[in-house]
Amino acid sequence: MKNSNIPLFKNKFFGTSRKLNTVNKATLVRDNFIEWLRGFTDAEGCFYLAPHSPDSLNFSFSYSISVHIDDIQVLEYIQQSLQMGNIRITRGMATFKVTKQEDIKKILEIFSKAPLNSIKQLNFLAFKKAFELYINNKSKDLSLKLQMDNIRDNMNSNRTDYS
To answer: What pTM, to 2 d.p., does this model score?
Structure first.
């Protein structure tokens, strides 16, 4: 059977219309997953950065999603779909966490193309700004630490600017 009977669809992330074939089905499935992940991240996700120690000039970055241990399968689905991250179980909670810099870059790409719908978008933008500042800065000095601390201190529950 030919693909000519399959309707055209609009790929919302890349703005192209095309006939649905095997390759496009994979793209559609991927786009649907990203859309679902976007909503799940709005509800349960977290973008976090922290110095390795209080006086350290080195920072760690993480993207995580935590759920009750009964819902661990959803985290396994996310991990399998993204092909990255680890899952840990602590005190009845399961957490999917991405920490490798090359994987954080992929997370940044995903949420840059598919922005979040909640206030977490502001946390994502701050997280992205800090990550790019950090990896593009050759000298890890006190000035960089102060900038990173300022970004971190105005994220998540510490946010006071909602514009």
So the answer is: 0.79
* Alpha-carbon 118 to chain mean position: 14
Taking the CA atoms of 13, 19, 22 and 25 in sequence, report the sign of the dihedral they define: positive
**Over residues 144-156, mean pLDDT:** 87
- Angle at CA 53, nearest 5°, toward 48 and 54? 95
* Domains of the chain from N-terminus onward: 3-158 (3.10.28.10)
Alpha-carbon torsion angle 4, 9, 10, 11, nearest 10: -90
Q: What backbone torsions phi and psi does residue 88 show, to the nearest 5 degrees?
A: -125, 150
d(CA 30, CA 113): 13
If 0-12 CB within 10 Å is exposed, 13-18 middle and 19+ buried, where does residue 145 land? middle
